[in-house]
Amino acid sequence: MEQLVDPFARAISYLRVSVTDRCDFRCSYCMSENMTFLPKADLLSLEELDRLCTTFIGMGVQKLRITGGEPLVRKGILTFFEAMSRHLKSGALKELTLTTNGSQLAKFAEPLAALGVRRINVSLDTLDPRKFSEITRWGRLPQVLDGIAAAKSAGLRVKINAVALKGFNEDELFSLTEWCAANDHDLTFIEVMPMGEDMGDGLRLDQYWPLKDLRARLGQRYTLTDLAERTGGPARYVRLEETGQKVGFITPLTHNFCESCNRVRLTCTGELYMCLGQEDMADLRAPLRASPDAEPLEQAIRAAIARKPKGHDFDYSRQAIKGQMSRHMSHTGG
Ligand code: SAM
Ligand code: SF4
């Protein structure tokens, strides 16, 4: 089948799939404390998720990232990973991976590795148990550290994702970096994004710690060498010469990555978001449920990709958040 290509000649080879909107944490920048979750009937079944992902893989998607909410709290999730692993075996899929908060990894790391998962992203903003409970509201740090250790012993490569939060983890920049070096984890910092309507704009603006400042501070202690590595996404990497470790910076608010964007996002209800920073989406659940035939679904996917915008409109400038998104990251999966 013909490779999916958008109107700006970008091949769509990367699909991020949110398999649930639920989570066992309530990170303050991601969810409100009393989130209302979707009715179960709205969610795609694991079989429907399989059909959708398989269709995308048939259309040229080579990398699949499973996310959420917390993907590992979705009931039967291993069945879904098992189903996707057949595409790894056939060679159609080059990478099957996930982004997780780590809370369930002690249980899932081994089976995930056995199904062909090689690398995972674990979100961890602080190594201080008290601050961890504060930012995640419901999380416990030791459980996550055990999960990360289990992932490492299962042979999974772990990348730590830390949201850069002013006044929260600024003081842990070096300790987090050193901990990752000591444990051989890659580390990526993420700029906080204006997502969700009920956090109050003031809070997000206060918490905004530009990664160029973070990077400059890192440069006071280490020698940073820019790496050419590009993933088609908003991440840029450096090597810290003193430790040899790789550190990434994800700045979704800058436009420097849109031109090479290779990804789209599918929510757990079958909405396809063509851009993280735009409201436009296509409902794939309707064509999926309307017919068992492949044709209408493929057509709906091609029509959606034909609407993929050139870029997004986030802008933190002048103390006003323009282009703010009303949906939560737990909806589109980040
Ligand atoms: N629950 C999993 C986790 O935490 O890794 C997967 C889903 S979570 C929505 C994916 C990523 O989005 C996490 O690394 C999280 O830190 C990040 N995230 C959530 N809200 C964000 C925001 N407002 N700005 C930047 N990153 C955010
Ligand atoms: Fe849950 Fe991940 Fe959102 Fe935290 S960032 S509330 S762990 S979905």
Could you characterize what this model shows?
This protein is an alpha/beta fold and 334 residues long. It has one domain (14-332): TIM Barrel. Helices cover 33% and strands 18% of the residues. It contains eleven helices and twelve strands. It has helices at 46-58, 77-90, 105-114, 129-136, 141-153, 173-183, 201-207, 211-221, 285-290, 294-305, 329-332, and strands at residues 14-18, 63-67, 95-100, 119-123, 157-164, 186-191, 224-226, 235-240, 246-250, 263-266, 271-273, 281-283. Strands 7-8-9-6-5-4-3-2-1-10-11-12 form a twelve-stranded mixed sheet. Helix 1 (46-58) runs parallel beside helix 2 and helix 3 (105-114) runs parallel beside helix 5. It is globular and about 55 Å long. The chain binds S-adenosylmethionine and iron/sulfur cluster.
What is this structure's SSE topology?
Elements: E1 14-18, H1 46-58, E2 63-67, H2 77-90, E3 95-100, H3 105-114, E4 119-123, H4 129-136, H5 141-153, E5 157-164, H6 173-183, E6 186-191, H7 201-207, H8 211-221, E7 224-226, E8 235-240, E9 246-250, E10 263-266, E11 271-273, E12 281-283, H9 285-290, H10 294-305, H11 329-332
Parallel strand pairs: 1-2, 1-10, 2-3, 3-4, 4-5, 5-6, 6-9
Antiparallel strand pairs: 7-8, 8-9, 10-11, 11-12
Helix pairs in contact: 1-2, 3-5
The structure holds S-adenosylmethionine and iron/sulfur cluster.
